[in-house]
Design goal:
Elements: E1 7-13, H1 18-45, H2 49-71, E2 74-81, E3 84-91, E4 95-103, E5 107-111, E6 124-128, E7 139-145, E8 149-155, H3 159-165, H4 171-183
Helix pairs in contact: 1-2
């Protein structure tokens, strides 16, 4: 969305990786083992209400499995208002967590080449890219945060977000991003 008042926002869905699949599989395995544990305890102790409690826990765990599955749906929201880039993480459309708020004019480096930061000393890395494996879509922004020091933000902005950031970026970064890449 682009607005004439200097407000741009974008929502990017995170691509699920094998880690998210493993979390889902473990949740289902735990859910399926609850009745067997309850039945085993009931047989060993001879107390039948343990089986009923296990069955109730099994039914309640259905909600837990649903919660784990839905928590794997993550989106990142980028918004540019004036000189501020705000990056938030939205989990399953029910919880929002601000990842960072960056003054755009304080960004030291903004590039698509992540190899520039292989040997950089960074105290915090913020992963807010839809798919970090797609190198042609990921931007790397190095900035200084008052609380953490040098931070590296990985994000996947569209053209409107970059255009919204452009007037506030350092002139050296604007030349590197918009003019040097066009010549090559």
């Amino acid at each position: 969305m682009e607005n004439t008042e200097g407000f741009n926002e974008q929502v990017v869905k995170r691509v699920n990786k094998p880690k998210q699949l493993i979390i889902k599989i473990v949740a289902v395995i735990v859910w399926l083992t609850i009745p067997f544990i309850g039945a085993s305890i009931a047989i060993i102790t001879g107390i039948q209400y343990v089986f009923i409690v296990g069955l109730l826990v099994f039914l309640a765990a259905i909600y837990g499995v649903w919660y784990v599955f839905s928590s794997q749906k993550v989106e990142f929201e980028y918004s540019v208002v004036g000189n501020t880039l705000d990056v938030s993480k939205i989990i399953s459309l029910r919880r929002r967590k601000r990842l960072c708020k960056v003054q755009i004019n304080e960004i030291e480096e903004l590039t698509r080449d992540g190899s520039k930061f292989d040997n950089a000393r960074v105290t915090k890395t913020i992963m807010a890219a839809g798919d970090p494996d797609k190198k042609d879509e990921v931007y790397y922004a190095l900035y200084n945060d008052p609380a953490y020091g040098k931070c590296l933000l990985l994000f996947s902005p569209n053209e409107n977000i970059i255009k919204g950031m452009r007037p506030h970026l350092d002139k050296r970064l604007v030349i590197e991003l918009f003019y040097r890449n066009k010549r090559s």
